[in-house]
Amino acid sequence: MAVIGDLIKKALDITGKIISEPEATEAQQNVLRKLLEKAKFTAFGKAYHFAEILEHPNLISEFQNRVPVHDYDKLNTEWWHYLLKGHQNVTWPGGQQYFAISSGTTSSNKHIPVTDDMLTCIRNAGISEITNISAFDLPGEFFTKQILMLGSSTSLIHKDDFLEGEISGISASNLPTWFNGFYKPGPEIASMSDFDQKITAIAEQAPDWDIGCLSGIPAWIELMLKEIIRYHKLENIHQIWPNLMVYTTGGVAFEPYRKSLEKLFAHPLIYIDTYLASEGFIAIQKRPDTSAMALFPDNGIFYEFVPFTPENVDENGLVRENATVHALADAEEDIEYVLLISTVSGTWRYMIGDTVIITDKARSEIKITGRTKHYLNVAGEQLSVTQMNEGLAVLEQHYDVSIKEYVASTVHENDQYILKWYVGCDKIPDRQKVADTLDAALKERSKNYAVARTRALKGVQVELIPEQLFYQWSQETKKKGGQVKIPRVMKQEDFEEFGLFVSRNI
Q1: The domain at 385-505 falls in which architecture?
Q2: Which residue range or ranges hold the GH3 C-terminal domain (predicted)?
Q3: What's the pLDDT tens digit per position in 69-94?
């Protein structure tokens, strides 16, 4: 088998050399032209005169002038709701077979169209991920091992003339035939909708598999690994999967989970970040010397970047009507942007909800910095999720604790603003000292926060709670497993409801 693995690795190396990286600016121009050409006779294309845009000498500029920025609510209210009623040729040619149900952190009832063209693009991105994995200098035997993909159920819900489910379930139900020999947990377990039953079934069958790679959201991967270790009375997961070498992560920032996950391994893995959203496969990490992810400039997605400033983005996290917007060619490194995408699923100048920075423009590499609606700016504090993660990392180091889950809110009470936190923690140090340490760390990382602490923001409070409460809350209020994410920022009303849940269950 090692010889076969070496042959596969060599083939991937050769493939990677043959498939050269496209020039991003030209590729993006071509992607937009193809999108407009294919959709020009849809209702959306006619309404916004795609045929005329295609005749303009400055295609991108004219597209931006004529087509407004959309968030989900706008695009759904004006266009996508027709798809749910069975209409065709609305924002993309043809009818609609699949809808991805968003289980992210902004809404629990989004129905995002996933076209056959988008499934093709997702498969292309997956193949790119496989060919790029050879860049991580893995031994030949790795390429004969199995991949365990812990996603949402592949048993999709039938609704009239379409199917709905989470994007990981839709993608897994459309895997290419050649991949079946590598894919675990297999179709029967993958179709289970109950997460606890799924990981129990995985634990039972785990000894029969030779897993080389894990894929899934960190919180649920960790729960699965813990159950396997408990079920088989192991010390670490490598006792049952000695060839486990790679973890492809995504959905949330990985670093908060690294410390606790590595307690379950005999040795650290190679970690590869991915950016698969309900709206499309946006980026993957292509090289080992960075954690940044490379965009796909020629795979059915046209990218735009809005500087994440109050002039461009309102207090609700929505792009303002006359915001400054850049194509990839004009965007700059190390500036925080709101990401917009137009895709082969009929999203047009669509605000996906994430903020990013471009870390290497020549390679089209980005890092996710947070969510537009998960950005604290109630009292002038202007804290991003990245800054909050960095502040909590200081707590981990200072108090030798593990922190993976948290939620924060700036609340108004007793005529003053207080920044409050619920932090999942494996130990319970003095909460006032923790609050003071976190406050100091955030002041160092954000000038705006430091200024706010001298003005409207009068204090910081931290409640340390068992991390399991976050997953229990997720299970009771949303759905456990798959792509479900714990929100990092809540509005005051939601935060207070979460606090009531904690007080009832602690």
Answers
A1: 2-Layer Sandwich (3.30)
A2: 400-493
A3: 999 999 999 999 999 999 999 999 99
